[in-house]
Amino acid sequence: MSSFWVEKKDADEILHNKYGVYSKSELEHQIKDGNLTVKELGEIYSLSEVQIVHVFRLLGITHRNILSDTRIPGFKISPSLHQVILGTLLGDSYMKEKNSFMLGHSIHQMDYFYTVAEKLGCSVSKIYYKETLLGKSLFLWTNRHPAFETYYERFYYRGKKKSISEKSIYDLEPEGLAYWYMDDGKFGEYGLVLCTGGFIREENKILIDLLKNKFSIEATEQYHDIKKDYRYLYIKAESRDYFISLIQPYIISSMKYKIEGTPFPKILDEKKIALRHMSFCERIEKPVKFSGNLELERMIKYNVPNKKIVYMKSIQDLIREKRIVSYTNIRKEPSLEEITSLFEEGLTDQQIASRYGFGRNRISKIRRSLNIPRKSVRSNSSRVEFPCMKVKFVPSEKVISNEYNPNKVAHTEMSLLIHSIEEDGLTQPVVVFYDPGIDKYIVIDGFHRYIVLKDHFKVDKIPVVVLEKSIEERMASTIRHNRARGKHQVDLMGILVKNLSAKGWSDEQIARHLGMEGEELLRLRQQVGCAKYLAGSEYSTSWEIK
Asked: What would the mean pLDDT of 89-103 be, rounded to a whole number?
């Protein structure tokens, strides 16, 4: 007997398989009406992405979203938002993909950052807090949506590097100018500055012509750094007041220092970020995930119901009440008290998921709903973690060095490292931290292994172990890795050399395989007695008598 069959009932098709029973018309309506992704629909029925896609395939459902995509209900580009996107793309915002938008700014420009986020509204997917040696910043990503594709065509027509042409900015208006200036402008003693270091000279000429022909603003191109070929646009003193009059209606209060020449305001209390994020979520009526700072994450309380989650729960209520055809053979889910107790015992998400037969993501969501941080779960555990068992391969170009490692390796040791990998293969993966803001893996330990693999062996992918740590923890971890390797004791090394010689190894073999110079090998032999090894050797006289 087949493991599944499809029953035709009126105009509907009903699938019976090992997961449960599913109506084609119900699944199609649910994914459309709720603006759901395939993954979200699978969560309703306690199915993984692979399982729900399998159900779709058996029922012949073709109307489904890309697995990694997220639909945005009712999102449209308004004339005001169009100007905001044009202005910020002339500044620091960017697009890594053709249908999504990204923006990053210092936390001191938090109010401007969240003003742009509010303009983007329900399209904002997540906001990330990032701390580096250069400072603290906020980044936002939007969900994928075809409405953003036109901006990718305007500003990325040459490839992945942002470029502009007359077609890119022909419809720029004063509101767009205001956001360009707020994003990347400076108040000067006489005129104003628009930072355009990312554009080439021909593109700056296009911007100068636009300012003059469309807005009657006189501007010139000037060098900020001749050696780096970094330029900017300078709005002349005679045009400054007129330019400010054009953009002033759109300048938000926290950015008025850029048109008044007052000191740059700084945020000293980071708690304001949490309050501003909660206010932002209430205004767009959507809870937007905030990550990157555990303390701020704990402070943020989402008072806005997630419309998708409300819809998903309503479908689950219909399933529970048996008011629709579709259902999954639901396994018994542990109570919140049981899960809390297991977390207190030190079990991880994966261990609890395996015990009850659920996916790790499902248990992780329950943990987050209980406000139990992931790191504290790990710290309460008496078990030793084994990240070395979670090796993954990443493209070599995505791995970069850190900025603080004091450890340097001499040429001799680098040659020995190459020889070691040739003889034994790579026995230790590179330890890294993944930074989603730049989509790079930053080395914590193993930089020289990475360099040898990439430059000497020309490998395309690097085996890495990813650790989730703050910048301070990563710096300490790097030093611990460096200092915990220990040093070879001279007397024991001398005995090792003696034993290898007894096994028939020549001096050349010992020096090559252990990475030693001839002088070092001789000193080690002197530690354990070298008469036996020097017997029969010919010596030159110290001097000759004439």
From this structure: 93
